[in-house]
Specification:
The complex is a heterodimer. Chain A is of the alpha+beta class. Chain A has helices spanning 2-14, 58-67, 115-126, 144-148, 177-182, 191-197, 250-258, 269-277, 308-317, 320-326, 355-364, 384-396, 409-415, 437-444, 460-469, 475-492, and strands at residues 38-43, 72-74, 80-82, 85-90, 96-101, 158-162, 165-169, 212-218, 222-227, 241-246, 264-265, 285-289, 292-298, 331-333, 371-378, 400-407, 424-430, 495-507, 511-512, 528-529. In chain A, strand 4 and strand 5 (96-101) form a beta hairpin. The chains are: A alpha+beta, B mainly alpha.
């Protein structure tokens, strides 16, 4: 009796629930794109806003990108292509950028789009009462500072010499200006609607020129987009609409996807390995590297990380391959700060996993006996805490006792900004634009110490290289200077780059031409449903 | 008969049987905790798989498989027994010391002392304890002592009230009156005459309190507030593995069964003792 029940228990614990199959259907097939159908998605939460001047998170951006357009955008990779602008020119000194606009663009109210709408949208973004987090990206436009300070009624650097022409005059050369214009902050909004409903209610009546229009947004329940019949790209979008069910957790979305109730879903970390190994899912699995780096930040202002040798020891001690294994291979080992897809990224002499060498470095720093310190991490048991415990183990092997301090994400972001608080932290960074400065200057320039340089790293030579590279339009020279800076930073080792994570998702077999983008949420303009 | 007692388990024979089963269950856990290094070759914190490819199933040299970091689950359950028993014992001991001191003082001295102390008890009872536990466990620096300390400091009220009630009747007994007439000091009366009198009831409460503390610890660990990682703790193991329940159910079942064993075992001991002690006293 006792033996039998024990056996039953062992049997029960040994049996995993088998992986359910994906929704049925032929995952690929020839034939022209089919128009029609509503794509079904899900999200755990409402977008914070649909006002492009105000959204700065992927949930908001994903929807905004479908409702609005920007002058320029990225192709499937990181190359800038025309969108509302047909073409553009840049003056020799790099300070005047002129766009020629498309003639066939209408707002979803059917009103024709002109250069004045561009100027209006940019000035609205810069208006202090909007409190846009994106405003600072555009302070380099001539006259923007005066406009923000209330000393001018318009931004003198944005001019509209003709209805199909808009000029931006910049206070200094800004090689990133076009990249900044791809951000949804710079999307063109419908002036009539803004003036009718007011700035604050525009999030509920987001009228633009995009491929879709907002049909319904019932807070906490669902968000429906319908095809914009007047969209300027002929025949697009293929979809009749998009319906997002709100309040669906990642786990629930996964179950709904398996039952064929959703067309797109993420894969829960617990299931990823089984899904990847399952031939039924293989054709439906989407994965791509993103411009992200996950890293350990070492606070250079705090003992013992004020010693270079200690920071180098940390770099040598960590087994990054095991971290990749823990995330089920969803990423590549990072030996550099810049992700491999970043333009200008080149191999940098890094650190191999070598605990013996790490011990020697500690001896060099006079810390042969090791030391005790604290790692602050996001308290997510599914990923962060598993990685943290692996790192803890690696450091124990070289005599470093690492206490873990798991905290909420906002608390983590806040704590790392204070110079004397966090000795070591586990964080990631995702590029806003595909340019090395978006990692190196933003995160490691000494000037950024009161914003995003949370390791408080400061090296005057690195600062000089970054400052020298920043205004260069000549990409070869620009990238060379940033590369030199990165080599020095890796020697000084304020970071332990861990890995560059990949994004992944699964599609319903009927979903075609859907791709993950390295920088932005996916757009559904070219996506179609086979049935 | 015993049927008429409020919380008894029925006949004395039945109580004895329950007590025995409980004692075996708890005894097994104590033994497992004490003998952990001999029952598994693995360090509970060590990553034992060569290359992580998801949690390994039971077998393959790992009785309960391996977890989501690549550690041996059987080793973590065994060493987790140390954590749970330590937390339960310490929390119970703290509650017991505070509760007895306050109960004895309130019951013996009566009057204003009693009123004030019972007011303190009421104050503690009005506080939403789980909320307070979460706040304290967040604010205090994480260590193996934090959680038992917090649970102990908040959990003494039952001890206090029960002891006070017992003392109220005991202090009127002839032998206490006699001791007082012979000139015994208050301290001597309390230690020599009252404490032994309240002890049987306190032992019952201690067993139940310990199981309660283990449950609360599991709950707090489940919320991510228990003993610091990587120290194994059953509640934490259940919580960390919850999304893996379909993929690797052993990660949840093993620590879950361990929690159930400890709690059921201690409760059987406690409820069994109620009748056994009543029977002895009668």
């Amino acid at each position: 009796m006792r033996r039998a029940s024990l056996a039953a228990l062992v049997l029960l614990t040994a049996c995993a629930v088998p992986l359910d199959p994906p929704p049925p259907g032929e995952p690929d097939g020839a034939g022209p794109p089919r128009a029609g159908g509503v794509l079904r998605g899900a999200s755990p939460e409402d977008p914070r806003t649909l006002d492009p001047a105000r959204g700065y998170d992927t949930v908001s951006w994903a929807i905004e990108q479908m409702l609005f357009n920007t002058l320029v955008d990225y192709d499937a990779g990181t190359t800038i292509v025309p969108e509302l602008a047909e073409s553009w020119t840049m003056s020799d000194d790099g300070r005047l950028v002129t766009f020629t606009l498309r003639h066939d663009v209408r707002f979803s109210t059917r009103r024709a789009f002109t250069a004045a709408d561009v100027k209006y949208s940019m000035e609205r973004l810069l208006k202090p009462s909007i409190h846009s987090q994106g405003a600072e990206f555009f302070h380099g436009i001539e006259g923007a500072e005066d406009y923000v300070a209330g000393k001018a009624t318009e931004v003198s650097g944005i001019r509209t010499p003709a209805p199909d022409r808009v000029e931006f005059r910049l206070t200094e050369v800004d090689p990133l200006f076009l990249h900044k214009l791809t951000m949804p902050f710079a999307a063109v909004v419908d002036r009539d609607t803004v003036e009718r409903v007011g700035d604050d209610d525009f999030t509920r009546y987001p009228v633009g020129t995009g491929a879709f229009v907002l049909e319904e947004w019932t807070y906490g329940q669902r968000l429906k987009l319908a095809r914009n019949p007047d969209y300027f790209r002929p025949g697009r979008p293929y979809l009749d609409g998009v319906e997002e069910t709100i309040g669906v957790s990642a786990q629930l979305a996964w179950f709904k996807y398996q039952r064929g109730e959703l067309d797109l879903a993420g894969i829960p970390p617990a299931e990823y390995e089984r899904v990847r190994a399952d031939a039924r899912y293989q054709p439906l699995l989407l994965s791509r590297t993103t411009l992200r780096t996950q890293y350990l930040g070492l606070n250079c202002a705090l003992w013992p990380f004020d010693h270079v040798a200690v920071r180098q020891a940390m770099n040598l001690a960590i087994d990054k391959q095991r971290l990749i294994d823990l995330i089920d291979g969803q990423g590549v080992i990072a030996n550099t700060i810049l992700p491999p897809d970043m333009p200008g990224a080149e191999p940098v002499p890094g650190y191999a996993h070598d605990p013996a060498a790490a011990r020697r470095k500690l001896e060099e720093a006079g810390l042969a006996g090791g030391f005790e310190t604290t790692l602050w991490t996001y308290r997510d048991p599914e990923v962060s805490l598993r990685l943290a415990q692996s790192i803890q183990r690696d450091l124990q092997a070289i005599g470093v006792a690492l206490d873990l301090k798991p905290v909420d994400f906002p608390a983590l972001i806040e704590a790392v900004r204070h110079e004397g608080t966090v000795p070591v932290f586990l964080l990631g960074w995702e590029a806003d634009f595909p340019d090395p400065s978006n990692f190196l200057t933003v995160l490691l320039h000494s000037r950024s110490r009161d914003t995003n340089n949370n390791t408080f790293y400061a090296n005057p030579v690195v600062d000089r290289l970054l400052d020298e590279g920043a205004p260069l339009l000549d990409l070869d020279r620009r990238f060379r200077l940033f590369h030199e800076a990165e080599v020095l930073i890796m020697q000084d080792a304020p970071w332990v780059p861990l890995f560059h994570p990949a994004g992944s998702a699964v599609r319903h077999p009927r979903v075609r031409d859907y791709e993950l983008h390295p920088l932005r949420p996916s757009r559904l303009e070219n996506t179609w449903l086979a049935w | 008969m015993a049927e008429t007692t409020v919380v008894g388990l029925g006949s004395a024979a039945r109580s004895r049987r329950f007590f025995l089963v409980g004692a075996i269950m708890v005894g097994a856990l104590v033994l497992a905790a004490a003998a952990a290094p001999w029952l598994t070759p693995y360090d509970p914190d060590a990553i034992v798989v060569m290359a992580y490819r998801g949690p390994l199933g039971p077998g393959n040299g790992h009785l309960f498989g391996t977890d989501t970091v690549g550690r041996d689950v059987w080793a973590r359950v065994l060493y987790g027994a140390r954590t749970s028993l330590f937390v339960g014992t310490l929390a119970m001991a703290i509650s017991l010391v505070i509760g007895m001191a306050i109960g004895l003082a309130a019951g013996y001295f009566g009057g204003l002392v009693d009123a004030v102390l019972m007011w303190v008890v009421d104050l503690f009872l009005t506080m939403p304890s789980l909320l307070l536990l979460i706040v304290l466990a967040t604010v205090l620096p994480p260590s193996i002592f934090t959680i038992p300390l917090v649970i102990g400091l908040l959990g003494w009220t039952t001890f206090g009230r029960t002891v006070r009630g017992e003392v109220l009747t005991l202090r009127e007994r002839d032998y206490v009156q006699a001791a007082r007439a012979l000139g015994a000091t208050d301290a001597r009366i309390i230690v020599r005459h009252l404490v032994p009198g309240v002890l049987p009831g306190v032992i019952v409460l201690a067993a139940l309190g310990m199981s309660g503390a283990i449950i609360v610890d599991a709950g707090l660990s489940y919320l991510g507030l228990g003993v610091p990682l990587p120290t194994p703790s059953w509640g934490r193991m259940v919580s960390d593995a919850q999304t893996y329940v379909g993929v690797a159910p052993w990660l949840v079942v093993a620590p879950g069964v361990a929690i159930a064993l400890a709690v059921v075992g201690l409760n059987l001991i406690g409820y069994g003792l109620i009748d056994l002690l009543a029977e002895r006293r009668a």
